[in-house]
């Protein structure tokens, strides 16, 4: 079945390269350019180029608009378009791109037809410029992890490093760091009005951590008439 589908794809690509319609209606990828396709309507073919930043997805159904983000497209032997002139933080008119320095790893911009929409990853995560998603900062090559998180894992021996040691945040009771392999800090946040309790190596009740007993403001009392 896979071989049959591969042959069909090659046939469709051949038709697209010849600017003829393999079927009366549908979208068919160009054989050589990753950003071009044929749109066929009632047997009439029109060559179309995807908007800047988008590429033709060969795996898209024939009747679905084929232009997708590059992260979802495998160009194979098809040629990708040359780099376009950037505008502001938008390397292309469509796409998601890292903004700021390597110390502000969680900032990125979603460019929609050249219009910037700024976003931040959830606290403690960094934007991965290749995968187009938020990841742990130690998994993002361009991120200066220690500067981004403001924390450096203490030096430990191999046995301790293998346990992924945990450390409280130096200034915030509700946050703590897990040092993966002893030297890759990852920020975690306690929930449900808990704080990091060093004694148990996890989040717990504030009253059990004297220095953090008043971390959360007291709940206001309500009285019924």
TrEMBL record:
Residues 1-18 form the signal peptide. GO terms for molecular function: chitin binding. The keyword Nucleus does not apply. InterPro entries: Chitin-bd_dom, Chitin-bd_dom_sf, Chitin_bind-dev_reg. Residues 18-77, 87-145, 150-214 form the Chitin-binding type-2 domain. GO terms for cellular component: extracellular region. Keywords: Chitin-binding, Disulfide bond, Glycoprotein, Repeat, Signal. The keyword Disulfide bond applies. This is Chitin-binding type-2 domain-containing protein. It comes from Daphnia galeata. The lineage of its organism: Eukaryota, Metazoa, Ecdysozoa, Arthropoda, Crustacea.
């Amino acid at each position: 079945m896979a071989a049959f589908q591969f042959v069909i794809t090659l046939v469709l690509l051949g038709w697209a390269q010849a600017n003829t319609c393999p079927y009366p209606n549908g979208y068919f990828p160009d054989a050589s350019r990753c950003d071009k396709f044929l749109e066929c309507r009632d047997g009439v073919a029109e060559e179309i180029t995807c908007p800047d930043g988008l590429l033709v997805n060969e795996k898209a159904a024939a009747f679905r608009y084929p232009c997708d983000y590059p992260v979802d497209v495998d160009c194979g032997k098809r040629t990708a378009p040359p780099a376009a002139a950037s505008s502001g933080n938008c390397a292309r008119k469509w796409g998601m791109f890292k903004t700021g320095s390597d110390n502000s790893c969680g900032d990125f911009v979603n460019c929609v037809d050249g219009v910037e929409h700024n976003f931040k990853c959830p606290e403690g995560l960094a934007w991965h410029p290749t995968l187009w998603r938020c990841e742990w900062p130690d998994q993002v090559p361009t991120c200066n992890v220690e500067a981004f998180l403001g924390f450096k894992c203490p030096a430990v021996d191999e046995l301790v490093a293998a346990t992924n040691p945990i450390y409280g945040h130096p200034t915030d009771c509700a946050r703590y760091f897990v040092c993966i392999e002893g030297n890759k800090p990852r920020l975690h946040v306690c929930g449900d009005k808990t704080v990091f309790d060093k004694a148990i190596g996890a989040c717990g009740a504030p009253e059990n951590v004297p220095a953090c007993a008043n971390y959360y403001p007291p709940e206001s009392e309500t009285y019924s008439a």
